[in-house]
Amino acid sequence: MELGENGTIKSPEISHELAEEHWTKLQFTWISKSYKVEIADSDRLYDLKAAIYSLTKVPNERQKILGLVKGKLPPDEVRISELTILPTKKFTLIGTPEGDEIKDPSQLESLPDVVNDLDVDFTENMVASNRYQHDTRNIRKVQEAIRNLNINIIHPLRQGKKLLVLDIDYTILDTKPLTSGSLPPAECARPGLHEFLEAIYPYYDILDKTSMFTVFTERDSKPWTHSVKALQIIWSHFPQFNATNTIHVDDLSRNFALNPKEGLKISAFKNAHTPQAWEDRELYKLARYMVYIANIDDFTTLSHKNWKNVVKRLPGPS
User: Fold this and answer.
1) How far apart (Å, rounded) are the C-alpha atoms in residues 192 and 210?
2) In whole angstroms, how far apart are CA 19 and each of 28, 54, 99, 109, 265?
3) Do residues 44 and 138 make contact, with C-beta atoms less than 8 angstroms apart?
4) What CA–CA distance (Å, rounded) separates 180 from 103?
5) Chain centroid to CA 67
6) Which residues contact 179 (CB under 8 A, 6 or more apart)?
7) pLDDT(243) > 90
8) Phi and psi of 229, rounded to 5°?
9) Rounded to an integer, what distance in angstroms lies between the CA atom of residue 81 and that of residue 296?
10) How far apart are the first and last CA of the chain?
């Protein structure tokens, strides 16, 4: 994450409000070497596999875990507390680690776009959002992210400004041609990007929120996994910002799961090389809205869901 003047901010102290958790120490062997890992009851099998990956670089999909439980390993969303771990607490890992190979840009160009058909509007499902926010595992993951985050300061934050947490991928630029190299960076940017930044800069400091972690729930009575962003990670490092003066702009509503009231969804920007993309005016509208609300003292009194309707009522072109 890049924020302000050159330097690194030391992580703040983490509050210990979590209830005492039970941790299980496990040992596994891989390529004739022994490894140890510790996992909490509130974690998921997914988290164990993530810990294994951090030690071995064997990706989740390549991990074959033998001897952890009797029989077939359950799905990733199952909690550790629900597993019947064998008494030895030892298992064997079989799997090939990922390489450091560089992908051919022509291959990257043919990759499919990210599918957003599983997006969820958490401003209309506060029950689900509360479940995320009060999940013991999620609370601990946020605290771990706060503790481990290193922040590179490029430009000093200004006193009295609001905070804009701005997503990048498919929000302010089309990521696919940028990463594939099929278009120059300037042609991947969403129309009006520079004008948008110039318009809001007098009122907002701007951060790119990149720290994310995976959460688990159900959708239509089926297991559902997706990534979320937690504004608490930023607020803990910069206490001058909070829910009253922060707005998070993203093209995916599901990224607002832990902070639904601060989220503003913008349409995804893709196919930057097409005439339809050149006619995109989303950032021009967003600039008008953000300047309009900039002098409101408490953003918690607002609902950003219908921000485009607000823009239509403003004087001048909408």
Assistant:
1) 23
2) 28, 26, 39, 47, 34
3) no
4) 9
5) 33
6) 108
7) yes
8) -120, 140
9) 46
10) 33
Distance CA 153, CA 309 (A): 36
- What's the whole-model pTM score? 0.65
Helix axes 136-148, 126-133, angle to 10 degrees: 60
Mean pLDDT of 15-22: 62
CA gap 51, 61 in Å, rounded: 14
Q: How many residues are listed for the chain in this entry?
A: 318
**2 — phi, psi (to 5°)?**
-110, 135
Nearest Cα to 258, choosing from 301, 214, 197, 291?
Answer: 214
Q: In the predicted model, is pLDDT for residue 199 greater than 60?
A: yes
Q: Is residue 30 within a helix (H) or strand (E), and if so which, with residue range?
A: strand 23-30
Can you spell out the DSSP letters for 201-259?
A: TTTEEEE----EEEEEEEETTEEEEEEEE-HHHHHHH-TT--TTSEEEEES-GGGGTTS
Tokens 């988290």 correspond to what residue?
47
